[in-house]
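hey so u asked for the seq, here:
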Amino acid sequence: MPKVNRLETIVQRELSDILRTEVKSNLGFITITGMKITNELSFMYAYYTVLGSDEQKAQTKEALEKAKGFIKNQIAARVPMRKVPELVFKYDQSLDQGSKIDQLIREIK
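ran it, structure tokens below
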């Protein structure tokens, strides 16, 4: 498993760079919070958060889906892998949940 963990780190770094420099769509203020690559290299899940309104989150999701093929090709060119897994973007709700919990704690005080 150490190879998969290392690969996740490399792909996350490259994905962040690709989104910052190569993708021309309006992604808003996006952060890649994590990567998970399955052991058989079938799927790579990219977890992200977006700072902004629900409308901005929806626009970012749509832009990521449109650019998915391009992003996957860029990852294939930058990261040496025998097989490039299918790229799946998943919204990371932990930031939203943390904000809700923080708000509840403030209301209690």
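The first strand starts at residue 29 and ends at 37. The two ends are 45 Å apart (CA to CA).
lmk if thats what u needed
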